[in-house]
Amino acid sequence: MAKRNTIVLFIILAIFAFAVCALVYPLFDREELRLGLDLQGGIHMVYQADFSDLEPGTEAEAIDGAVAVIERRINVLGVTEPLIQKQGSDRILVELPGVGEAEKAKELIGATALLEFREQGVDEEGNAAWVPATATIDGEEKTLTSGYFKENTYVGQGSLSQILLYFEWNEEGSAISGEVTGRLIGQPLAIFLSGEPLLGDDGLPIAPIVQSQITDRGQVEGLSLQEATELSQLLNAGRIPVPLNPVYEQTVSPTLGADFIDMSLLAGLIGIILVMLFMIIYYRLPGALASLALIFYGAVVLAVFKLIPVTLTLAGIGGFVLSIGMAVDANVLIFERMKEEFATGRTLGAAIEAGFNRAWMAIRDSNVTTIIVCVILIWLGSSIVESAPVTGFAVTLLIGVLASMFSAIIVTRTLLRLFVGTKLGKRTWLFSAHREKK
Amino acid sequence: MLNITGKRSLFLIISEIIILIGIIALVVFGLQPGIEFSSGSMLTIGFEQEVAQSELKEELVNLGYDNVIIQRTGAGDFFIRTQELTAPERLALEEDLGARFGSLTEREFNSVSSMVAAETVHNAIIAVGVAAVGILLYITWAFRRMPKPFHYGVCAIIALVHDVVLVTGIFAILGAIMGWEINLMFITGVLAVIGYSINNTVVVFDRIRENLRRGVSPDFEMVVNNSLVDTLSRSLNTSLTTLLVVLALLLFVGASIQNFALVMLIGIIVGTYSSLFVAPTLLIVWERGEWGKLIFLRRGKTEEA
Question: Which of A369, A401, B167, B174 is geometrically suited to a Cys-Cys bond with B180, CB 3.0 to 4.6 A?
Fold first, then answer.
């Protein structure tokens, strides 16, 4: 018995050592605990695709295309670990952790990156305005846009070392361009990006005078190097093949996230210390051993979070802190049973074994409901858009409950057994046990 | 030995009064749904200069946001809740506020469309329903060995409903007075409370079953009382340890899990009360058919209904 206990003790110590190593050193390529957007800041957006203008049967292709285009656009930003994912058949989830420049990122995702060429004309009210430059090709009126660009635009310098964005027309584009530029020689042709005039480095709209008919290639002059480069990348990333409307958005500034981490660490620490104090004062030696088991528990659970990895949200940390309080519940059940066994005159060894055996049923039963609730919450989280808090909470609590059954039962019992037959084990006050019956 | 069950009339009537207040609060005030359930936008803005809440409110109304809710969340930080803002509307709003109150930083922004909100409500209702069925199945299973499974099951469920009504009632009052809203973390908290509270009830009932089998006393009331006293310290201690960590969460984290922490805090206290003083005492009332105890404050044996 004692020998077996020693073996179990070594296994426990080994697990503990492994958990601590996993937390301190990057094991299996896991450098840090993975933090959710609410803790490290960033953007979480969900877009709904509008298929109404699409030919039936092409929806799946369009949404996959949209995901690919967004991925390429996000690469421009250089975000670490972005997540771009199709949700269901008609939604796209975009998560950009740690992004501070929220507006910029969303502009990149949302921007249709469609350059539109416009000519001088009059609007519906008869005022002078820029109107889309159109040409009639095969009896259809078509607007001259970057939709007809080949996806190989690039940035270079002209002979006066001015920055130029070069583009080439595809077959259809060259026909439209030929007609439009042929018609507009000597007149300005403005460039609009997403409905707004494209402004040059000087802050003025870019609207060059057409010098000659253009059919195959062209260039945009007046942008700064950075603007031109970004625009080129966007154009090359392609167009999103289906209109996307944001249906959910969450943006957290990185500084706010950092505050949350500090506060939740403090809460966890205070929680754990209060629980330990209570256990030690109320249950004395067994309480102290339960506190050791709690440290074991904390290290193992955090290591599991890191290795799986579990994305830690604020709610997830809430689940973890809650599970600390629940983790000692099993110990309370066991120690109360032990006290009762002591009261009937049993020895320490017998009281420990009887306490654990008789409390086991209650511990198992009481964890069942928590597990039921966790599973239901995980389902709920997986079925809704704002899943992060619900899922985060349920997953950490579930892992916590499972780990607590191990720590509260195996770890505490193994530690307690060490005292069986020792001098300390005979001092019943250490176990707050009363021999006399009430 | 403590005589807990002897005061069952008092315990039950306290619960009834509190439940009545909860139901009245729910009927009168209703619950304030957060944007996750009703759609809209939430914005947390930090101003560099000191801004008075009333001025901010005035400015927002001037800008056409009539139904705006504003809360001060920290030094210079304000939480603003509006109808759903589109990206240009949000930029315009921040620019306008910046022009009026000086430079500001957006700390947090959250926007939910009505379609997503409707889905969330739908799925949250399903989740609560499934949870209810799951808990019922669990209760049926856990009480299969009890002498009168139906009695035990019904009393446990009454205790659960008691807890849920109370927590939601308090949130209705908080919603009316302080603008607290019901969000997903509230639902999560309620489900966690249900799971937690039923455990305590099961522990007490389990002991009643054991003591009945051991034949502690021929008097059912005595058996229940003994069982309560036997399990009192473990019931209180398990609740206390959990309460400690929840309190730490509430005081130090707050923010987005404030709703959850408060639901848990109230739920654990109420749940412990109902597990110790409502579910077991109801068993006695039922066993003896002394329904008058539910209405009149009387000790000992009274007339039968």
Answer: B174
